[in-house]
């Protein structure tokens, strides 16, 4: 889990440092792009850690920013080299949300609001096998198998013996009622939710229908936080064709306030376990 072997986090830190050097120089991303004869979007992607950074990129940028300290340049060059290492998820091929997996692997805590389905970190294999092809029907069997394997591997963060992820989930009631796969799969999934919610580092709260209008009605989101002060919190919003990562302090603050309102409207952890257990029983009764 150490950050020195996490290419996503290393790339993000390097991008932040390059942005700091640009701002110290008093240059805009557009001005830097013109100097290097590249697109402005490339500079932006390098700075936000969404694009792989080569040692040549670092050398060129340090030249534009007139960084004279060779120790600083060497350190940034080494970070660029380390950032091109591959995380465990690369072994599964082209995973569309690989940037998020890299952040999740390094995060110390994760707050999730889900409105329609059980979050991936808490899914059973049966639920995953049913929900993934339902949401992405064009997948081949090979692609489906890889996605299921990745989803199950991600759950190592929840069960890590030394540094488990601190996970807080607010789950809309609809995720408990919708029959994904079968009533048997749903009963097993909800039983699993009850079990995992008893872990000291996992909290699950249900937002029932009768809670009325709430702050999460505009869509689902996750907030990732990190132990290292160099890594700012990130709001992650999953999209169909692209994902959104918000890192500005004001944006993160707004979503944090939204999450606090969701937690306040949801049932308590104990009430939620009872609610989930009752929903599991209804699925069991439907099998009779």
The pLDDT mean sits at 90
Residues in helices, as a percent range: 40-55%
Distance between the termini: 45 Å
User: What percent strand?
Assistant: 5-15%
Q: What structural class do the secondary elements suggest?
A: alpha/beta
How would you describe what is shown here?
A six-stranded mixed beta sheet has the order 3-2-1-4-5-6, with helices on both faces. It has 13 helices and six strands. The mean pLDDT is 90. The protein is elongated and about 75 Å long. The chain has 288 residues and is α/β, with parallel strands linked by helices. The longest helix is centred in the first third of the chain and has 19 residues, at 7-25. Helix content is 52%, strand content 11%. It folds into two domains: 9-83, 434 Repressor (Amino-terminal Domain) (Orthogonal Bundle); 88-286, Endonuclease, Chain A (2-Layer Sandwich). α2 (29-36) crosses α3. It starts with 6 loop residues before the first helix and ends with a helix. GO terms for molecular function: DNA binding. InterPro entries: Cro/C1-type_HTH, DUF5753, Lambda_DNA-bd_dom_sf.
